[in-house]
Structure to design on (757 residues):
C-alpha cells in the first residue's frame, strides 16, 4: 500500500442516490456502508472469505442483467446501485421467505433472540405472514463438544462456522453434510470441536441461533445485557472485548474487532474465564486493625490514620499484573515518595502459546495477566514461579513498610507481614495472609474501573467500567493518589486520565490519542524471562 | 414379454437396453460377454476408477484399503489429479467397490490416506447419493420413479421388488441379497420402467417380471 500511496486509485459511484468515493477493489457492500446503507447479508463476514451463497445481499446495479451479490462485486466507476429499489426489496423478501420455510420460529426460547440477523431482517423486510402449509423438516440439536451447541433447525447454511474452522482456526472439523433441505452442519460423527482453542468464535459469527454457547445457554436475554468496551484480562494478548453485564455480574465476554490485536476473534480460555470477576465475598469497606481486631471504617479515617503511620522507611511493595497502568504508576509514585524501595510482581505463566493459525497476531500468550508488560515498563521486577506463587521470602518477614496491592497472597501463610512496622494490604478479597495487615483497603476489579493495560507488544489500550464498585471499594490509583495527596499536601490526580499522564514512560500519549484501538508506546524491550523462573 | 421366458433369449428379455426387436442379437453380443458383476472387466468408461479391469472380490466391510491391485488403482488415481482433494471422489468409488459401502471408518481411512479432514470426507460422501452410507445387499436395486417410469408403472415395479425381498425401501433382505431403493431419473426414459441393479441397467421392466428377474439374479448374479 505504502508504495502506491501517491497514486490514490479511487472509484466514484452512486448508491441509493448518494455519491461515494471509495478505493478501487472495494465491494459494493462496503461502499454502501460508507453511504450509510447496511445491505443485509449472512454468509459474508469481514474476517472470512466471501462465497456469495446466501443470496441476501443481492442488489440492483444499473445496466447489469441480473441482481449482483454486493459482498463480492467490486465497485466500478460510474456504477449506479439501488439497494432499496422494488426489485432488490422484492428479491430479499422472497429469499427471506425461503429462509423461514423450515425455520422453527422458536424465538421465545432461542438465546440468539434479540441479536439474530434472521429476526432483524425478517422484521425489517420480510413478509408479514408465512405461507407455509407443509410440515417443516426437523433436525433437533447436537452437542458439538467444547462450548458449542448446535440447533439444526435454526441454521441458515451460511457456512460462516465451516469457513472459520477452515480458514482461521485451520482445523476443518466442521463440514456441510447431506444435501438439499437435509443439509446440515456437522463434525465427523462424534469428533466434535473438543480440543480446539478458538471454537467459541463460531458462536459469535453465527448470524442466527444455530450455534449457541453452552456457558450462556438460557442465562440471559440478549436485550437485557449492557455492553461495555473492555480488554480481556486473561492474558497479555489484550484482546479487545465487550463485557456483557446484567444484575451486577459479567454474563459473558465477546470479542470486539481490532485488526491490530485480535481481528474479530478471541480464544476460548479467555472467553470462558470470567467467573473470577463475579466472585463474591468482596472487601467492601476499609478495615483498620486494632490489636487482633479489625474495625470497619470510612475512607477519610482510614487514609488519615494511614498517613499518620507512614514514616520514611525501607519500603517493599508487591503489586499485581492484573492492575491497570494507572494503579501501577500510583504504587510506584507512593514508593518513591516514601524514599524508594523494591517493587515486585508475580504472574502465572502457561507452558506454551496457543496461536490462532489463520490470524497469527492473535495467540493466548504465556503470561496469564493483562498488564505484565505495563509492570515491566514501569521498572517492576518479576518474582515467584510459573504458577504465580512463592518468591516473597524477603517481603514476608520485612520489618519496614510492606505494601501489597492487588495480589491476593493465596499461597502465603498467616504469618505474612508479621514483622512489618506498617503492613498495608489493598485487595479485592481478604486473605489469611492479610491477617497482620494494619490497614486493609478494598479494591475494585478491572471491570469496575476505567484504565489502561499494556499488552505483550507494549500496546496501551483503554478499558471502561462496566460494573458498579461493591460498597466503598475504589480503584487502587485513586486510593494511592489520595494517600499521596494527604501525605504531601499537594493536589494529586483524581481522574484516570490524569493518573495516566503521570506515568512518564507513556510520553505524550493521552487517553484521547489512545482512542479505542490503543497505541504502541515503545517497542517491547522485555526479553523472554531467563531460566530463573523455572522454564 | 412373459416373465417366464429365460432372460438370455434374444429380444424376449425385457431387462436390457437396446432391445428393439430389430436385430437378432443376444445381450452378450451387444454388451460383450465380459460384462459381469458390477463392472466390466475391460473397456470401462474412462470416468470409472482408473479404467482398470474389474477385480471381482467378496465385498466385505472390513476389507483392507487398499491392497494388491487396488493399491495400484489407488496410486494411478492419484497421478491423475493435481491434489488429493480432487482425487477424493474416485478413491471413494474404489473404497465402495472394495467394501460395498462407505462406513464412517472408511471415511476416516480415506481421509487419512488422502490427508483430508474426515469431516470434509463425510460432507462429500453424504452429498453424493451413489455412495452407500449403509451396508447394502448383494444386489442394490435402484428403481427409477421419475415421471416417465412412473407413468409406466414404476410404483408397481417398486412394490413388486419390495414384496419379493420382503423389505422396506433401503432395508436389506434377511438373506442379504437385495436392497431396494428409489432412484431419481436414470436417463432410461425411452425404456420405462428402468431399474439399475448394481451397475447394470434393466429396462422395460414390468411388475410381473420381478420374481423371475430376482431368481435369476440369485442364481447367475446377473
Amino acid at each position: 500500500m505504502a508504495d502506491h500511496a501517491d497514486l490514490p486509485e479511487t472509484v466514484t459511484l452512486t448508491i441509493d442516490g448518494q455519491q461515494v468515493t471509495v478505493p478501487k477493489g472495494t465491494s459494493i457492500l462496503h461502499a454502501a456502508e460508507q453511504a450509510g446503507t447496511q445491505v443485509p447479508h449472512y454468509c459474508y463476514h469481514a474476517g472470512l472469505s466471501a462465497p456469495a451463497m446466501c443470496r441476501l445481499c443481492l442488489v440492483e446495479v444499473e445496466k447489469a442483467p441480473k441482481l449482483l451479490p454486493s459482498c463480492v462485486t467490486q465497485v466500478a466507476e460510474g456504477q449506479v446501485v439501488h439497494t432499496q429499489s422494488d426489485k432488490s426489496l422484492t428479491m430479499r423478501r422472497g429469499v427471506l421467505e425461503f429462509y423461514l420455510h423450515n425455520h422453527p420460529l422458536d424465538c421465545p426460547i432461542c438465546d440468539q433472540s434479540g441479536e439474530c440477523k434472521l429476526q432483524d431482517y425478517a422484521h425489517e423486510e420480510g413478509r408479514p405472514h408465512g405461507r407455509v402449509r407443509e410440515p417443516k423438516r426437523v433436525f433437533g440439536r447436537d452437542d458439538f463438544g467444547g462450548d458449542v451447541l448446535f440447533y439444526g433447525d435454526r441454521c441458515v447454511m451460511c457456512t460462516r462456522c465451516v469457513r472459520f474452522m477452515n480458514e482461521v482456526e485451520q482445523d476443518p472439523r466442521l463440514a456441510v453434510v447431506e444435501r438439499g433441505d437435509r443439509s446440515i452442519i456437522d463434525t465427523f460423527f462424534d469428533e466434535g470441536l473438543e480440543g480446539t482453542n478458538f471454537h467459541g468464535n463460531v458462536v459469535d459469527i453465527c448470524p442466527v441461533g444455530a450455534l449457541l454457547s453452552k456457558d450462556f445457554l438460557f442465562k440471559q436475554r440478549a436485550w437485557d445485557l449492557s455492553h461495555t468496551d473492555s480488554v480481556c484480562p486473561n492474558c497479555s494478548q489484550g484482546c479487545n472485548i465487550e463485557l456483557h453485564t446484567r444484575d451486577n455480574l459479567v454474563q459473558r465476554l465477546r470479542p470486539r474487532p481490532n485488526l491490530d490485536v485480535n481481528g474479530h476473534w478471541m480464544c476460548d480460555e479467555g472467553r470462558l474465564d470470567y467467573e473470577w470477576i463475579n466472585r463474591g465475598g468482596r472487601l467492601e469497606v476499609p478495615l483498620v486493625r486494632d490489636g487482633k481486631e479489625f474495625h470497619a471504617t470510612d475512607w477519610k479515617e482510614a487514609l488519615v490514620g494511614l498517613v499518620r503511620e507512614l514514616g520514611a522507611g525501607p519500603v517493599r511493595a508487591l503489586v499485581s499484573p492484573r492492575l491497570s497502568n494507572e494503579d501501577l504508576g500510583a504504587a510506584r509514585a507512593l514508593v518513591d515518595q516514601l524514599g524508594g524501595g523494591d517493587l515486585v510482581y508475580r504472574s502465572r505463566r502457561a507452558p506454551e502459546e496457543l496461536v490462532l493459525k489463520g490470524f497469527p497476531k492473535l495467540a493466548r500468550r504465556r503470561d496469564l495477566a493483562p498488564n505484565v508488560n505495563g509492570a515491566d515498563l514501569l521498572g517492576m521486577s518479576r518474582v515467584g514461579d510459573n504458577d504465580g506463587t512463592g518468591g516473597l521470602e524477603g517481603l514476608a518477614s520485612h520489618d519496614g513498610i510492606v505494601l501489597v496491592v492487588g495480589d491476593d497472597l493465596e499461597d502465603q501463610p498467616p504469618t505474612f507481614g508479621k514483622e512489618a512496622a506498617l503492613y498495608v494490604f489493598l485487595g479485592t478479597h481478604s486473605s489469611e495472609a492479610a491477617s497482620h495487615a494494619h490497614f486493609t483497603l478494598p479494591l475494585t476489579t478491572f471491570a469496575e474501573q476505567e484504565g489502561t493495560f499494556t499488552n505483550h507488544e507494549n500496546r496501551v489500550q483503554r478499558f471502561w467500567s462496566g460494573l458498579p464498585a461493591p460498597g466503598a471499594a475504589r480503584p487502587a490509583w485513586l486510593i494511592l493518589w489520595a494517600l499521596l495527596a494527604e501525605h504531601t499536601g499537594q493536589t494529586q490526580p483524581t481522574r484516570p486520565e490524569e493518573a495516566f499522564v503521570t506515568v512518564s514512560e507513556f510520553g505524550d500519549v493521552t487517553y484521547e490519542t489512545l482512542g479505542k484501538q490503543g497505541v504502541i508506546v515503545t517497542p517491547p524491550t522485555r526479553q523472554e524471562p531467563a531460566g530463573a523462573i523455572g522454564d | 414379454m412373459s416373465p417366464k421366458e429365460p432372460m438370455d433369449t434374444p429380444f424376449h428379455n425385457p431387462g436390457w437396453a437396446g432391445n428393439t426387436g430389430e436385430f437378432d442379437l443376444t445381450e452378450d453380443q451387444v454388451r460383450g460377454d465380459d460384462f459381469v458383476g458390477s463392472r466390466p472387466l475391460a473397456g470401462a468408461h474412462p470416468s470409472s476408477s482408473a479404467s482398470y479391469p474389474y477385480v471381482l472380490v467378496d465385498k466385505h466391510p472390513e476389507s483392507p484399503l487398499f491392497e494388491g491391485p487396488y493399491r495400484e488403482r489407488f496410486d494411478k488415481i492419484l497421478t491423475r489429479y493435481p491434489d488429493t482433494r480432487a482425487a477424493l471422489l474416485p478413491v471413494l468409488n474404489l473404497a465402495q467397490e472394495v467394501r460395498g459401502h462407505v462406513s464412517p471408518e472408511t471415511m476416516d481411512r480415506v481421509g487419512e490416506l488422502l490427508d483430508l479432514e474426515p469431516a470434509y470426507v463425510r460432507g462429500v460422501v453424504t452429498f453424493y447419493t451413489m455412495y452407500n452410507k449403509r451396508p447394502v445387499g448383494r444386489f442394490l436395486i435402484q428403481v427409477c420413479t421419475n415421471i416417465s417410469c412412473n407413468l409406466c408403472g414404476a410404483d408397481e415395479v417398486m412394490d413388486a421388488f419390495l414384496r419379493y425381498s420382503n423389505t422396506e425401501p433401503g432395508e436389506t433382505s434377511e438373506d442379504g441379497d437385495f436392497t431396494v431403493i428409489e432412484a431419481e431419473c436414470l436417463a432410461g426414459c425411452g425404456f420405462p420402467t428402468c431399474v439399475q441393479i448394481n451397475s447394470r441397467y434393466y429396462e422395460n421392466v414390468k411388475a410381473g417380471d420381478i420374481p423371475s428377474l430376482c431368481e435369476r439374479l440369485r442364481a447367475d448374479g446377473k
User: Anything to note?
Assistant: The longest helix of chain A spans residues 86-99. Chain A has three domains: 2-99, 133-224, 287-533. The mean pLDDT of chain A is 92. Chain A touches chain B through 14 residues (CB under 8 Å).
